[in-house]
């Protein structure tokens, strides 16, 4: 019966692939955390937070843009998992309110990371990475328009942009001390429903505090 060679095991292709995957995951996780706090975080900071050297980082990512791209992709994928649990059936206006309740904190959390992405990536790439979340809202808005809940005189992509802009504004207001987190969802929902309700139709009450 032969004996296993520990050196051969450590140097096997499968072991190297597993090590590489762990390094990549650590780098992407660290990038999301570091850039989420500071959009100007350096690759040195990210490598240190990941517990790897710059040589290892550059072995997997050839540029800062690639690191930012991977970090934003990870954040959006995690956000998508949260949004998958939101019930978007029934009254489109109530469904939109539920989406905002769950979705706006994700926008707030990823604000600094998005700033880094907007500096490093092309507008087209940023748009592509947001395709899945945008499609979810576009589908809801299209259904709401068909049912008469939302206005039809504005393009759906514009309405999606308005929604996201209001969410980002809420995050800015919280940081400026002019809005509290517990009131943000109500403010966003009230503002967006006022913008999306067909002209001449009463804007529905959303509840919540001032």
What does the secondary structure layout of this molecule look like, with pairings?
Layout: H1 6-10, H2 13-37, H3 43-50, H4 54-60, H5 64-83, H6 92-109, H7 111-120, H8 123-129, H9 131-146, H10 156-175, H11 181-196
Sum up the structure in keywords.
single chain, 72% helix, mainly alpha, 2 domains, Tetracycline Repressor, domain 2, 210 residues, 11 helices, elongated
Write structural notes for this entry.
With 210 residues, the chain is mostly helical. The radius of gyration is 22 Å and the shape is elongated. The protein has eleven helices and no strands. It has helices spanning 6-10, 13-37, 43-50, 54-60, 64-83, 92-109, 111-120, 123-129, 131-146, 156-175, 181-196. The protein folds into two domains: 1-62, no CATH class; 70-210, Tetracycline Repressor, domain 2, CATH 1.10.357.10.
CATH fold-level label of the largest domain: Tetracycline Repressor, domain 2
The percentage of residues in β strands lies in under 5%
Unreliable spans are: none
Assign the structural class, choosing from mainly alpha, mainly beta, alpha/beta, alpha+beta, or little secondary structure: mainly alpha
Name given to the CATH architecture of the largest domain: Orthogonal Bundle
Encode the helix/strand succession as letters: HHHHHHHHHHH
Strand tally is 0
Measure the end-to-end span: 77 Å
Mean pLDDT: 88
The top-level CATH class of the largest domain is: Mainly Alpha
What would CATH call the homologous superfamily of the largest domain? Tetracycline Repressor, domain 2
Q: What's the main sheet like?
A: none
| Overall tally of structural domains | 2
State the helix count.
Answer: 11
Rg is 22 Å
Shape: elongated
Q: What is the helical fraction, as a range of percent?
A: over 70%
